[in-house]
């Protein structure tokens, strides 16, 4: 959302490059909810030539969180009487037959927090409640969850635990690589994990550029992407060097590695991607809500009319879905992509495609 | 019958009221239920706080204020103020309660003249804070050229209200020939905003401290009647004047588009937003166009008069930052569109969709 008036001439020339692109058809998948939001807000799709197609990939953590995760949260809230602390977006995401919003109406305790640390603070202040933080998000959010668990352990906060659905990007890149010709890599994720994975993918023929979030950063990254693509060789270019370093943030990566380990993970609309999730290591199992409350394995069922999965893979536009804009709106979302402002369906609805 | 300022009553059962009164007979630094009981303490409260700050010839001990009628039309408006916190960077609930009603009257082209104010005060509210609020009201009313002619005080039990709530009702005189309304915008008109947007909403958001964000933002809360009178004098053809309070400039523009049956096209690059406000919005995923202002007007006028109107307003207090942000069109009636920083056309998302903070 930040502007960049000082980048005027550079921005214009990058815009010209994209508008006048005459190379082969190219599909570019953005894998970051903030990119999706900014692309729609700026109307970038509307200035692209027909040969350049943008796909909103699985980059919004709320959108890829499976139905079963909401069902598990509902079991904790309703059957175990836990207080659920969550980022606001998740409250309205539909589970199999209910949502946290509906459960709250029925008396469940659901607290919206702005960081995992707030959930620990809440637990300290409410010793008579069992507080569960819904831990969703990618590499950018996971370190703050680890810090919260660390703080709970240090201060002996025994009524705090987390329900993890944390995800990592490399598995998604691998799973989605046939749905796109190149990736617009999420700048913030790579600020944490570095660019090694992008270089590796390029070596194996999967191209991409790492992009920032202002109008000129996004337009520049797209201009670089189409120019390189036209040359035909696999490539990776870091177009967000002011924030993304090759080595990332080693301290954050070390913290996460020391407390969490990879696991298979279900992505809403896509299915299970091997080793694309993160869960707490055994030594922290007392903070793992699944272990602490012996949650059964839950199989969720999403609304069959919802085509979020195909939207996330670029197989259809939000407007191709029968329920889009009619039954499914930001006020009454059927699928997760309509909930968060970073979801493709929501952005499509709000900014008019 | 009791005089205007003696209509104060406690909103609690009489027995409780008496008990508290006995406990607080000796001098008070906080407002007590006894202050609302209509007796000695009530007089003390009125003398100490309200009479001192609201004194004028029309403000009497009678049951109602008596005011001579001028010929022509009056505008009348009422508004309740429950802002939390009651004190914020750039003002307090007292200043807000005057600005809110004065600005509503000004939007109809009226010259604000008289205000009434009703207080609901929570038991235990600090007396010095109440005085600070009354002083802010006195100062703002004087600046806006309005007289507070009647008032009412109620004291509610602890927890029954949050600190202090204020209602103000105002009357203004509309000069002959002036006609503004949200229904009068026409294709080709210029859309003007009188300064950078979203500061009040952002200030309150930060004061509530839910986010742990610190930023140097001050509320834009200000009385705008002077600026409106100067604007109407220079450009009597102004079609629409609206104050962009709750819901912000975006909501006002959608209302104008609906009322007038026109489209509104904004130039994203021209919308003035303070860098700190922009930063906070960026962090929380909020749209500045939907953050409340308390000292900003949206005006719509014929395109050929826009330059004169902008120039006039830039020379007035509180509207120095006036600028043209877009135009009225006949495309997509009822909708607000944006020409974005890269020259693309998009919709401004409709108001009402809760803009949730981003999580990554």
Strand neighbour order, sheet with most strands of chain A: 4-3-5-6-11-10
Structural domain count of chain A: 3
Arithmetic mean of pLDDT of chain A: 92
Number of strands of chain B: 14
List keywords for this structure.
heterodimer; A: 353 residues; alpha/beta; Rossmann fold; 3 domains; 6-stranded mixed sheet; 11 strands; 39% helix; B: 360 residues; 60s Ribosomal Protein L30, Chain: A; Phosphoribosyl-aminoimidazole Synthetase, Chain A, domain 2; 2 domains; 7-stranded mixed sheet; 14 strands; 30% helix; disordered C terminus
Structural description of this entry:
With 353 residues, chain A is α/β, with parallel strands linked by helices. Chain A folds into three domains: 5-52 and 170-235, Rossmann fold (3-Layer(aba) Sandwich), CATH 3.40.50.11750; 66-167 and 248-292, 3-Layer(aba) Sandwich (Rossmann fold); 308-351, no CATH class. Helices cover 39% and strands 18% of the residues of chain A. Chain A has 16 helices and eleven strands. In chain A, the strands form two sheets. Chain A has a six-stranded mixed β-sheet, sandwiched between helices. The two termini of chain A are 18 Å apart. With 360 residues, chain B is of the alpha+beta class. Helices cover 30% and strands 22% of the residues of chain B. In chain B, strands 9-11-8-12-10-13-14 form a seven-stranded mixed β-sheet. Chain B has a five-stranded mixed β-sheet with strand order 1-6-5-7-2, with helices on one face. In chain B, strands 3-4 form a two-stranded antiparallel ribbon. In chain B, strand 3 (87-88) and strand 4 (91-92) form a beta hairpin. Chain B is globular. Classes of the chains: A alpha/beta (353), B alpha+beta (360). The A-B interface holds A 1-3, 5, 11, 15, 32-34, 37, 40-44, 46-47, 61-62, 87-89, 114-115, 136-138, 140-141, 188, 215, 219, 330-331, 340-342, 350-352 and B 210-212, 269, 278-279, 281-282, 285, 338, 340-347, 349-350, 352-360.
